[in-house]
Design goal:
With 385 residues, the chain is an alpha/beta fold. The protein folds into 2 domains: 6-165 and 366-384, Glycogen Phosphorylase B (Rossmann fold), CATH 3.40.50.2000; 172-364, Glycogen Phosphorylase B (Rossmann fold). It has helices at 15-29, 42-46, 63-66, 70-87, 98-111, 132-135, 151-154, 178-184, 202-222, 237-243, 257-266, 276-283, 296-305, 313-318, 333-344, 348-364, 371-384; strands at 6-12, 34-39, 91-95, 116-120, 142-145, 160-163, 192-197, 226-231, 251-254, 269-272, 288-292, 325-327. Helix 8 (178-184) packs across helix 11.
Length: 385
């Protein structure tokens, strides 16, 4: 490695990867003179990244939902590869979004650029498409995993994989102040706050938010002292606001990370889409349920392909049902409201969750260092090789 700036090309395709990328950027900046290029969202751009294009174009999930987007995504893959070739970075680090990122990696390998290639966040081969573990070594030089059991799926197939720790253990949610949140929004101490988290993709919000709002209305009809907070992200904020305009609930939409996490800490319970947000809630000891549904065709195909008992990471890691999973046909306003009532009553489900959350915290830790710092050390080491 010479004395000039290290060029790091980062690719994050959705908000959770964007947050992970911003933390990684901060950690890398503390370790050397680094220049960033690539694709990212608001939080990465706040750290100095000028994104090649808006990541909302890549934030699509579900088979029937992806098909119409294929021509646009293929154009973006070609554009990304051309940009990498032009910039000639020292290393390319892709973050999650393996469907998009794998195609970028494959194209770079074909071009024989000699650029180091790393992927951060392992594809969930323990859930489906296990064959991917056998071929990833062809396209990336190293894999950084969030879960301690993941390297074992890849190392037998010639891919160097290292566990760095899960980013939720360094989430700003852990240090947020629920009392400050109440004061800043003039929410009485007597009001029960419920967080509503319908996801960060347009198709998730469209499909889940109506049921979540109807569940909130059912709860409010029984508990007029309830107050609802809906943390969202810039990519879907306008859609969210238009969908809740006439909901006739005491409902606050917040868009910043600080307010999001303040809402978590002020909440007595939460209704969440499956994903990283559910782990953040677990780390904050916020009782919650997850509810999710996809198109009928995607659901039929997924049932045949996915071979795991649970979909929520807390349940998967502990191999027991700690967080209720209201999926597809079980994702109804009545079911959601009923489970939130149980959590608010501090019954057996509530106690089971608190114990499970303690076990999750232990499972996800990787010593005293933060996951982003561990990842940054590995990336800097790879740049020196």
């Amino acid at each position: 490695m010479n004395s000039s700036k290290i060029k790091v090309y980062l690719i994050a395709g959705e908000p959770s990867g964007d947050l992970l990328g911003s933390r990684l950027m901060r950690a890398l900046q503390q370790k050397g003179d680094v220049e960033f290029f690539g694709i990212g969202g608001d939080t990465m751009q706040q750290q100095g990244l000028k994104s090649l294009f808006d990541i909302t174009e890549l934030s699509v999930m579900g088979i029937t939902e992806v098909i119409p987007s294929i021509p646009r995504i293929l154009r973006r893959i070609n554009q990304t590869v051309a940009d990498i070739v032009k910039i000639k970075p020292d290393i390319v680090v892709t973050i999650d979004s393996w469907s998009f990122c794998s195609r970028v990696h494959k194209s770079l390998r074909k071009l024989n650029t000699g650029i180091k290639q790393i992927h951060y966040v392992a594809p969930q081969v323990w859930a489906w498409k296990k064959r991917r573990a056998k071929t990833m070594y062809k396209y990336v030089d190293k894999l950084l995993t969030l879960l301690p059991n993941e390297p074992q799926y890849f190392t037998p197939y010639h891919l160097s994989a290292e566990f760095v720790g899960h980013p939720v253990i360094e989430s700003a949610a852990l240090s947020a102040d629920g009392q400050d949140f109440r004061l800043s929004h003039r929410i009485s101490q007597d009001q029960i706050i419920i967080s509503i988290l319908p996801g960060s993709r347009h198709n998730e919000v469209s499909r889940l938010l109506p049921d979540f709002i109807q569940a909130a209305q059912l709860l409010y009809s029984k508990h007029p002292d309830m107050y609802f907070v809906l943390p969202t992200v810039k990519t879907v904020a306008q859609r969210v606001k238009s969908m809740i305009a006439d909901c006739q609930l005491p409902l606050l939409v917040v868009e910043t990370e600080d307010e999001r996490y303040g809402a978590f800490q002020a909440s007595s319970a939460a209704i969440a889409a499956s994903g990283t947000v559910a782990l953040e809630l677990a780390m904050c000891n916020i009782p919650h349920i997850i509810a999710y549904k996809i198109s009928k065709l995607t659901y039929m195909i997924a049932k045949k392909l996915i071979k795991i008992k649970y979909v929520n990471l807390t349940n998967i890691m502990l191999n027991r049902l700690v967080v209720p999973e209201l999926l597809q046909y079980d994702c109804t306003p009545q079911n959601i409201a009923e489970h939130i009532e149980k959590l608010l009553a501090h019954d057996e489900l509530y106690q089971k969750q608190l114990q499970g959350f303690a076990d999750v915290k232990q499972y996800l830790s990787n010593g005293q260092d933060t996951p982003s710092n561990v990842a940054a050390k590995i990336i800097m080491r790879e740049c020196q090789c």
